[in-house]
Design goal:
heterodimer; A: about 575 residues; alpha/beta; Rossmann fold; 3 domains; six-stranded parallel β-sheet; 20 strands; globular; B: alpha+beta; Alpha-Beta Plaits; 2 domains; five-stranded antiparallel β-sheet; four-stranded antiparallel β-sheet; elongated
Chain lengths: ~575, ~160
Amino acid sequence: MKTTNCKSLTGAEIVIETLIEQGVTDVFGYPGGQVLTIYDALYNAGDRIRHVLTAHEQGASHAADGYARATGKVGVVIATSGPGATNLVTGIATAMLDSIPLIAVTGNVASSQIGKDSFQEINITGVTMPITKHNYFVSDVADLADTIREAFQIAKSGRPGPVLIDIPKDVQTAECLFESTGIIEEIPQKDADDALIEKAVSLINAAERPYIYIGGGAASALSAEDVKALADKIDACIGCTFMGLTAGLGGCSRFLGMQGMHGTYASSMANKEADLVIGIGVRFSDRATGNAEKYASRAKVIHIDADFAEIGKNIRVDCGISGNIKTTVSRILSRCADAKHPKWTAKVAALKEEGRRIQAAAEDAAGDALTPKKIFDCINAAKTPDTVIATDVGQHQMWTAQYASFEAPRKFASSGGLGTMGFGMGAAIGAHVGSNCRSILVTGDGSFGMNLNELATAVSYNIPLTIVLINNGVLGMVRQWQTLFYGKRYSHTLLNRKTDFVRLAEAFGAKACRAETAEELSAALSAALSADGPFLIDTVIDKDEFVLPMLPPGGSIDDIITAKEEAA
Amino acid sequence: MTRYVIAAYVENKYGVLARVTGMFMRKGFNIDSLTVGETENPAYSRITITLEGDDYAREQLIYQLQKLHNVKNVVLMESEGVERELMLIKVRNTPEIRSEVLSAAEIYRGKILDYTTDNLCVEVTGAPAKINAFVEVMKPLGILEMCRTGVVALERGRTLTQNE
């Protein structure tokens, strides 16, 4: 028998009630023909769930993603069928590649119209099959609530990821009894075999030059203290992947920053010199390892990850441990011996010093010109530890990874795996909505052009968003590759646009100014970071600034380029 | 390169085969055969996959299958498991080759499914190596058409793939 809590609701109402039941307080989206019923249900639930209307469904998908990155909660986006659904595709793929928990709810044409090429009909479950952790087409309203619950469970369990739920219109209007349950638990992860933990411990105890290498998986499963505790006990230095920057280890003296293609000199070199690499929540991607055959060739490798399929996928490892990252690390921590490696510590310190020297030489050569390094000196001085930095993709993104300091977790929202230009505007908005912290979007004139329409959203919702537009008039990262590897044949990377970004921002209703020197930028940042709405700062740098160091694609650490003269 | 037979128990639901084959395409797995059909439990289908590959390909294929939400269990079949495949093959029915086809079919314990004045259709069942051998015998006689089901396999003895 049904209890008194049971009530008859429409499918659309069940969608909203189940989202609320699962702890959702904010959703991003854009209404349309086949989600009208869901939006109608939302109309009555406005006091319990906030909906943020974006300018474009892609922006909504990135906002839900940025929300998830900044909070650790599951981001939710709603879009209509057909173009509404396909506009989510880039956002879903972005979340997939960076293992971000995301629920996409799409409407579809009524069941009777499915398969007939009806107006705004698209098989979005087919389209998103390779870019979701799982997806659903709900054909019966009786399955709807449990499907949404299971979707949340899949999105947040183990290695998180996006899940899409496609709901035809007749299922949204059909009625069904609904009974609220609690928030669904994550699927428990297996604890690793004791023998594997022992193997890892013996590798660690035998190591003299340990390098802890953390990725996005570590950043979401572990606290900065967990990582520091292990590093302190075994006297290791800490490097990270691009996604690992979100762990917020910026204030830790053992932290060397990102390694890999555009990693810091010290981090990449320490990775090379190490005799033990302890990869935690990483996937040894091509951008991180360069030539996988030559990667960490002198080192034993321990790989700890939530996803068993990552073990041995990209590089051979000496000890692979899949399952719960947090318990694995704490089991290793409790068993490994206290160690001191003074020679390694001295070596790492020397590498850091060399990195600083290379950096200082580059800055000296630049003189008074506004350089990326100076821009980030200004940003680091102006921001507080809780400020979220979002980026788009390209040179400005790599400079952010190299120079911005992240001293608290979940303060960095950037598309790592997919490299999605246009990600930042939505992500910065979503990050603010989720965390209520100020956000800074660092972007370039190329990337900003892709989704600047979300300025309208930032203005509508009065988002305290500072946009630092690093404007060089070119598609800088592609240009850098053309300079280095394509004989300076600058095919279609000179933008030659006449956009006045200050007036553009003002036209959207945002504040804006231009900053051409470090002093102007500092002043602009202090104004922007105390403004109560969006504020765009247009800074200009030379079009031939490089992101350095650089390991050429497919190369190894021995091919590292640290100065522009070596490159040209 | 080694030949592997992998069995996957999957939920018998709309779209599951597309998820499995889509994953093969996405990950660049080149498989030799794939069969799918009902099992003793109507809620599950069994997909049997054969591939030639190295340890890495085998391991990744199993891992990636296990990651799919609708896949309940994946098993690497041992080489001594029971494997069968069915082939239908059509050759011309002429006085010059008729007796050779009929005797080969008998030796291979094939069945004549269709006998017309023009054509002969033979069914052969067995392990893939036997089917391959029969194809080689028929080739010089002129194969008009043939189709193979791909391998189905079970482990010997009391081992139950589904429960592992």
